[in-house]
């Protein structure tokens, strides 16, 4: 019985794709099991806290404060446009 190379090729490609796709889960798990992702990482990155703190504050501001400001300005513009038309905005 002879095996056609084209029939094996699909299986090999599928297997390699599954291995590459599972790396996103296996590599962080290996880092945690080896203990590389805890105290040692913190000790290395603490020397850069003057960089990481402002980046964290800016990240929180972008995610929390900026959308709230957008909603505020939309509501303020809506109230201003209703007031400009001469209709009361509160009912």
Describe this structure in words.
There is one protein chain. By secondary structure, this protein is mainly α. It has 2 domains: 37 residues; 45 residues. It contains 3 helices and no strands. It is flat, with a radius of gyration of 28 Å. The model has no long low-confidence stretch (mean pLDDT 79).
Which key features would you list for this structure?
flat; 91 residues; mainly alpha
Helix and strand arrangement:
Layout lengths: L4 H30 L4 H7 L3 H37 L6
Element order: H for helix, E for strand: HHH
Apparent shape: flat
Per DSSP, the total helix count is 3
Low-confidence segments: none
Q: End-to-end span in angstroms?
A: 85 Å
Cα radius of gyration in angstroms: 28 Å
How many structural domains can be distinguished in the coordinates?
Answer: 2
Question: Helix proportion of residues, in percent?
Answer: over 70%
* Average pLDDT score: 79
In short:
This protein has 91 residues and is mainly α. The chain has helices at residues 5-34, 39-45, 49-85.
């Amino acid at each position: 019985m002879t095996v056609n190379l084209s029939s094996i090729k699909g299986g090999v490609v599928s297997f390699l794709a599954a291995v590459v796709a599972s790396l996103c889960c296996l590599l962080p798990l290996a880092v945690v099991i080896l203990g590389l992702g805890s105290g040692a990482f913190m000790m290395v990155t603490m020397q850069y806290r003057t960089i990481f703190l402002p980046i964290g504050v800016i990240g929180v501001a972008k995610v929390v404060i900026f959308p709230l400001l957008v909603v505020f300005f939309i509501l303020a513009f809506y109230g201003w446009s209703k007031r400009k038309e001469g209709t009361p905005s509160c009912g």
